[in-house]
Amino acid sequence: MKLGGLQKLTLLDYPGLVACTVFTVGCNMRCPYCHNALLVNRIEEENTLDEGEFFAFLEKRQGVLDGVCITGGEPTLQQDLPEFIAKIKALGFKVKLDTNGSFPDKVKALLDSGNVDYVAMDIKNTLAKYPETVGVPGFDTSKIQESIKIIMESGVDYEFRTTTVDPLHKPEDFADIAKLIEGSPKYFIQAFKDSGELVKGQGLGELPREELIRARDIASTIIPQAKLRGED
Predict the structure, then answer these.
(1) 3-228 fold
(2) Which has the closest alpha carbon to 33: 188, 162, 137?
(3) pTM for this structure?
(4) Distance between CA atoms of 189 and 191, rounded to whole angstroms?
(5) What is the pLDDT of residues 46-55, one digit of tens each?
């Protein structure tokens, strides 16, 4: 596994659990607003976290932490991710997987394994705006639709979420976004925050609060449980 870092304690990343978050290196997308630019761009560089060191940490936290969040980058790019997750589960931790949904076959295999307890998929934008939003011209959105279906039919606890960025998102977009995941019990709209280490941060900003509220209200006509993360 190519690991880029470890957050040793989080009360936010895994709903309802005390967890840690481990970051994988590399991503197939180039979302200009991504706040993990180093993890996206340094695919061929040496790991900053040794896998053995990570598991030594977990062994010391048995009985203290409940779960492990695996995020990136895009974790499903890692060929040994299934084995990595299985080792975490063998230590007694619950596993949350973050994914952008680009590799539905890998998502399905992981969910079918029974080793993933919670999955969170980013819905970047409307299908028409996906290529611009993820920074990949001609991006194949059929993979996104396939992953949505797999997750919703998996029986595994899940959420969908969208990070809003000005000028990439407009409140009106959230009708089409919500239709993609209609029937989901959880959908979170979250505000963009500039970490100072963006993939391409020029000209990007937060959506005004009134537009965030309007986006949520539009989405909630299709998904009544739609919420602003950290506020509702």
Answers:
(1) TIM Barrel (3.20.20)
(2) 162
(3) 0.94
(4) 7
(5) 557 899 999 9
On whether the CB atoms of residues 117 and 94 are closer than 8 A, the answer is yes
Please give the single-letter amino acid code of residue 133: T
Cβ(116)–Cβ(158) below 8 Å: no
Classify residue 136 as exposed, middle or buried by CB count within 10 Å of its CB (0-12, 13-18, 19+): middle
**pLDDT band at 203; cut points 50, 70, 90:** confident
CA distances from 25 to 52, 55, 71 (A): 16, 17, 9
Does 45 score more than 80 pLDDT? no
Q: In this predicted structure, what is the pLDDT of residue 169?
A: 97
**Cα 20 from Cα 197, distance rounded (Å):** 22
* Cβ-Cβ contacts under 8 Å for 23 (sequence gap 6 or more): 3, 4, 5, 6, 7, 36, 39, 49, 71, 72, 73
Neighbours of 6 (CB within 10 A): 16
Q: In terms of Cα–Cα distance, which of 168, 170, 178 is closest to 148? A: 178
Domain locations along the chain: 3-228
